[in-house]
C-alpha cells in the first residue's frame, strides 16, 4: 500500500523532492469501518497553499504526513451498513492506494448521471466553485461582458459556459493556442493566449464595451489588464491567484483601488466551502444542465499512482485542459 507524504515544504515551485513515497501493509477495517480502494485522485492548485506553513483557510499539511485531497474511491471491504462493498464515494482522503474510513465526510456517488470522475470536476468542488462564484458573486446578466482567467482549467471552463447560459458575452484567457481553440469550440466568444498576446491590447479589443464581470482564477498581469476595462458596477469574483502561488516575495503591481472606486465595482473573495449548505442545490443544477447538453467538461487524466506528483506539478505548467486527475485503479 503506497502513500505519498510531504517530504519538505517547498520554497518557490514544488519539485519531485517535495514528495516522499512510503510503503506499508494494506490496513484492515475494524467494526464500523470500510476499506477504500482509491480510483481517482484530484490534483488541485489550492494544495500548493497547504504545503506552506502559512495560516490559511485550510490547515497546512504536516511534513512527513500523507498529502490529502479530493479522491474517488471504491468500497472493497465493509463493516458499515450504509456503505456496502462496491459503493463509490468521493471525499477528502490521503494520497494512498488503500485507506480505512468510518464513512464520515464521504459522499456516495449516485449511479448514472455522469462518469464517476466528474464528482471531482464538473459535479464536484471545481464545478461548484464556478457555479457559486459566478452566479452568486458576479451575477452576469444577458448582454453583459464576462472575463474569466484560467479559462481552460476545471473551474474556468465551467464559468465560461455558465456565463453563456446566462446570455453573457464571454472572454477567456488561457496559456496555449490549443486551449484557445478549445474554448472557442465550447462557445466562448473570444479567447486569448496570454502567453503570446499583448494581454492589455487583446483584452481591450475583445471587450469593446468594457467588462461587467471578472472571474479571477489567476491574478497578476491578466488581472491588472482586466481592471483597466471595468464598467460601472462591475463585479469581480476573486477565486484564485495561481500566478503567485509559487512566488517567494509578495507580488507587486499597479494598485487597483482607484479603479474599483471610480467604477463602484464590487470585489469579493470567496471559498467554495462558504456555500457548503447550498452544495446539493448546485450539484443538482449542474447535473441538469450537463444532462441537457448545455454544459461540457474536459479532463486530463494521467495514469498510475506514482504519477500523482507529476500531475500536480503539471498544474503550474499548464499541462492540463479541464480537470487534472490521476487514475489510480
Ligand atoms: P486549473 O484546472 O485551472 O489548473 C491550473 C491552470 O492554471 C493551469 O492549467 C494553467 O493554465 C494555469 N496557470 C498555471 N500557472 C499560471 C500562471 N503563472 N499564470 C497564469 N495561469 C497559470 O485549476 P482549477 O480550475 O482547479 O483552479 C483554478 C483556480 O481556482 C486556482 O487559482 C485555484 O486555486 C482556484 N480555486 C479556488 C477555489 C475557491 O474556493 N476559491 C476552489 C477551487 C479552485 P494555462 O495553460 O492557462 O496557464
TrEMBL record:
The keyword Oxidoreductase applies. Signal peptide: none annotated. It comes from the Bacteria. Residues 15-326 form the Enoyl reductase (ER) domain. One of its GO terms (molecular function) is oxidoreductase activity, acting on the CH-CH group of donors, NAD or NADP as acceptor. Gene3D superfamilies: Medium-chain alcohol dehydrogenases, catalytic domain, NAD(P)-binding Rossmann-like Domain. The keyword Oxidoreductase applies. Keywords: Oxidoreductase. InterPro entries: ADH-like_C (IPR013149), ADH_N_2 (IPR041694), ER (IPR020843), GroES-like_sf (IPR011032), MDR_fam (IPR045010), NAD(P)-bd_dom_sf (IPR036291). PANTHER family: PROSTAGLANDIN REDUCTASE, PROSTAGLANDIN REDUCTASE 1. This is Enoyl reductase (ER) domain-containing protein. It comes from Hymenobacter gelipurpurascens.
